[in-house]
Amino acid sequence: MVTAPVNKEGITLSGEKFTGHTEYIAELCGAPDSRMLLVNDRLRVVHVSTHIPLRQACELDSGRIQRTIELGHQAMRWLGFKQPRIAVCGLNPHAGESGLFGEEDREISRHAVTAARMLGMQCAGPLPADTLFVKAVRGEYDLVVAMYHDQGHIPVKLLGFSVDPETGTWEALSGVNVTLGLPIVRASVDHGTAFAIAGQGIANERSLIEALDDLGDPGRYSPEGFRRMRALGGELRGLRRRLSAPLAELVADVERVIGVDIEVAARAGVTAAAQAVEEADPPRFGARVRKKTRQSFVRLHHGIEADDRLQDRRTFAAAVRVGADIGRQH
User: Fold this and answer.
1) In whole angstroms, what is the distance from residue 297 CA to residue 2 CA?
2) Which domain holds residue 147?
């Protein structure tokens, strides 16, 4: 499931109590122990608490912190880290400075870290948050555990968001919000509704595309299905880096990635993109088209249907739609 941003205040004004997608979907799934994980290409942060008042977030619970570490560790294993290096943020300045600035880190968070280590996890902390994120960005840690919403959101968005200082245009909105602890895979964008720029045609879709590109737990796929999806995701990421290419070339690349290039060239009313590719590579598309069209279609069909898992087919279809959307945007 991939969700777009919503306005929490707007939903609440309708008379429905609503604190966010994460909590709402967790309730629907009967999963009271969910957590929010933010991911971009430089930082990964899981949160002990999210959409609650800061005063309440500071009332730490060792069991909740330990469970957050466990869910984060599991997620990192899904992402390919065999033994993820996890660091836990302190709640207080300097992680409490040995009790000088508060006892929560020494008396509560430390016990959770110790328990995680006893379970075999590579976990450090609590550590001062003002330097911990820098260490994570430079590669010392694979995952950071933040105590509350803004402690984790600010560094992720500072790294993932970029604004042109002259025009004020959002140049990059990189980041994915993944809900851990659910019986389903759920990802979302890492930004809000941006009503201030609604209708201006300048919204950036990158975070949504990255959310669609997140495959979730490999255990939900067969080995071959996951391999195909990873390969397709890599191809789509390559396409996103070529969005400035001429339209004909870009559409042709999309058709090639999703495996319908020969079919497109053979159908009645050849598109401009297919025509451009045919002209660029006539031996491939000339006399071979009629002979190969049916064979390649059958191979494509069987390749999708060979895995009988519904998740494979749905996720493949979602990835194909992303590729098609890239072409339409230009």
Assistant:
1) 29
2) 2-161
